[in-house]
Every structure is written in structure tokens, then in C-alpha cells.
Amino acid sequence: MISPRDMTAAELAALLAFHADSGVEWLLEDAPVDRMAQFAAEKRARAELKAPAATRAEQANQSPVPSPRERMAAQTASPPSSSSGPTTPRATIPDDAAIAEARLAAESATSLEELRAALHGFAGCNLKLSARSTLFAEGPADSGIMIIGPMPSADDDREGVPFSGRAGALLDRMLGAISLSRDKAMLTTAIAWRPPGDRSPTRAEAEICRPFIERQIALAAPRTVLLLGNFTARFFLNSNGTIHSQRGQWHKLAAGDHTTAALATFHPHDLLTAPATKALAWRDLLAFHQHLQQTSD
Predict the structure, then answer these.
(1) Which of 18, 36, 178, 265 could form a disulfide with 284 if both were Cys (CB 3.0 to 4.6 A apart)?
(2) Domain ranges (residues) in the chain
(3) Taking the domain 99-296, which CATH number applies?
(4) Cβ atoms of residues 13 and 4 within 8 Å
């Protein structure tokens, strides 16, 4: 086997280009992840769900479940000393307790910076174990405009910024067409962490992320929200309809005590895979631009 030490700079560059073209996103994880332990924990959780109610109640009496506040206190406790050696992140199974914990963490934040810190410190969602980055809103909160996508893409996860890569570049052109840019709006995603393999989040995973994105909206208090993509529209509009049936219509989006106008349209990725939808997206952008002009007067 050829060692990298024996390769020239040009050969190394060619090898990296080959890996990139093959779809390799990174060669090493930032921290070791015990996939076998994660799988075993998920298997035990599924078995517990199938167990009779009496058995689950008996187990609950023997091992009481800590409250959300107790779980938060345990997460924020001082880490063990370095003499104990490195620790491997434990797999987290999404459940109602984790959802309550996320709600408490989000509602306790009184500013966007506090919310950012709470989200980065939150360890109650299994998606965080496989993701490289925790995504949070980027851009000026006082712009009155928020653009929300679904979950981070591979490019977003690698860069740590929402709407990166080809989809992000197309979004920049879409916004430019209506005299808008990403530095004049807040950009974020409904789900803070990229699901493995770009799969859709489970219901529990989505509900764990919901308090954080709704708190972002409540604290930023935008006048207008643009929802991008099928998942995002369903997530916020509580509908089973597709983006084709929900796009181009104005909706009321409530987040905490704040209510704002929201318009759904296609995600830039949809336009890359189905260019025929660009004409419909353009109509939606014009309606969005008209609304911005009316509300700014």
C-alpha cells in the first residue's frame, strides 16, 4: 500500500479529488461514535415498546425516569477529569422525556444567543451524534425576514452554515432576482442536525427540534417568513399536503406569542432536480417581494 508520505502534492490533490467525486464527504469523524452501542440501544428501545404495559410499569417503578430539569442538570454538570480517559457519546433514543427537555431548554432562553448556547449544549437528540455541525439561524434578526429550510444538507453540515453548496448558490440567485440577499435576512433550518444519509427525520426527532426553531422565530419576531420545501411546509403548517398544494398561499405561522405571515415555495434543491418548477417558484418569489414592499411602507 502506498503511504501518503510517499505521494507528491499533485498526487495527493488528485486522490482527494477522486474521493470527492466518489461522494466521500469526510475521512474521519470529529469524535469516535460507537455504532454497535447505538444500534443495541435502539434495539432495546424497540423491545421495550413491544413489552406489555404491566412490564413497562414495573420497570418504571424500579428505575424512576428523571425529570427534564434533572436531565438538563446532568448534562450541564462538570465533565470527568482527563485521567478517566476519553468518553464515547451515548446513543440517545428520542422519547417524550427528550421532547419535554428540549421544550424546557428552548423556553428558558431569553435571547437568540442564549438559545444558540442551549441548542449547542443540548444532547437529547440522537441526530447530533452523527452530525458534524449544529445549525442555527444566520443573518440579522432585525431584518424582519426569515427564510427556513428543512434539515441541513451534506454541504450545510460540512460548512456549518444553512443553505451552502449548489442549493445555497441557487438561493442567492433567487433572492437576488427580487433585490434581496442573504445578509438582509435570517436563514435557518427546521431541523438543527443533518440526519444520517439525508433521510427524513422521525416524528420524535422532528418534535425534539420543534421547540428550538419555534423559539428562534419567537425571539427574532420576523414580519415575514419564507418556507422552503415539502418537509418545511408540512412541519410548520401542520398539513399532509404536498408543496404543490401549499405553495403560493399566505398562511399564519404561530410561534409562542409571535404570529407572522408565511409563504411556502420550492426548495432550491427541488429546482435543481426538477427545473420545470422554476416558473412556479418565480411566481411565489414575486408574491413574497410584493408582500415585503407592502409591509415595509
Answers:
(1) 265
(2) 99-296
(3) 3.40.470.10
(4) no
